[in-house]
Amino acid sequence: MPDDLKDGRIVIVGASLAGLRAAETLREEGFTGSLTLVGDEPHAPYDRPPLSKQVLLGQATADTTELPMRRDPEAEWRLGVRATGVDRLAKRVLLEDGESLPYDRLLIATGTRARPWGNPDEAAMDGVFTLRTREDGAGLAERLAAGPERVLVIGAGFTGSEIASACREMGLQVTVAERGPAPLVGALGATLSKLAAVMQRNHGVDLRTGVTVTALTGNGAFTGAQLSDGSRVPADVCVVALGAVRNVEWLADSGLAVGPRGIACDAGCRAFDMYGIVTDDIYVAGDVSRFPHPLFGYQMLSLEHWGNAVEQAEVAAHNMVSPGALRRPHLAVPTFWSTQFGLNIKSVGVPTYSDYIVIAQGSLEARRLAMVYGYKGRVTAAVTVDMSRSLDYYKHLIETAAPFPPPPGAADRAIAADITIPSAVPDPSVLSHGPTVALTGHLPDRRLTVV
User: Which UniProt keywords apply (predicted)?
Assistant: First the structure.
């Protein structure tokens, strides 16, 4: 590594939101060396959230989702080429085209991809989609604009629910199949998921819960699906929304701490190797990272959040060009938002890290509320429905480890905060959709048993 951290060669693998923000931050922090960004897609970094909202509704096209640059990162862009490995001894990133890139410091920001349908032949049928890339968004938007008779959405997490919402907004018939008891239950727990189920049905969604899709049918073109309860759903478009897979396979021989939940790193974004030893020249940021957070029992968190990708990329970039004493930890409180079925849902903290909840403001009946989550007597999360102005207050309670239930001043009616009910976060293995925040230790309300 060069003596001057502001010089040398930095390679960023992942021409993503996190990759772009890290590159910009490196230059803002005074890095003057060579900077290379590698991306397996042919496009410059683009924004993914509009793909399940504005693009499907025809309010924007997929090719207009490119991310604005805060500044020119003065980088060499290697787009449309996949990284296939890291040689840590030679300090080189290996590329699919046979070339390799030397680095002094490496940032891995390869993110996630859509979990595919398990049967490749069924997944290849015309009319079967996942939604992750620009091409996915453009193809699905075109098919929905053609006015299919029915759309089947498999999985009722945030992406599946937003797609179903867009379909209903366009006047399309839609069936949602979810293995768990309700939509969004993996992210928000039982109480709010019941409201989500009511909202979907009130908006005309044919919501089927507690069922799995056992087969997609059709002869080259998708015509319907068989469900585990014996019923059949005829449809001409199917969207598979079964959560995300972290892009880590290319690192299988790297000796890094890589697994299905991502690449483990410390709070300063430095990657661990497979023996739990921290590296000093490889950093991780964005959806592909797993990092410890002191507010949540130092559990390793895996997040699929826009804001986390930006904040973690900025911390990683700062630490890559700063001496040890000036490095800082990534301690941002996770935040997330979704608009669906006329509701604006915003989350702060980790709702799955909870044992009890209270409705601190509003009510389920009014469909306007603030729900506070607690674990072992401490506030750990809050979710608002059409009440986002309260979120900053609850974020402060989480950051200061405020007692749960929150004091009367945190509620617009004091009695609400006295009625605690179990958060009832289900085991993720019983869901079609994955949580957007995953605790990668054990769930807090379940003791680990040794058999």
Answer: FAD, Flavoprotein, Oxidoreductase
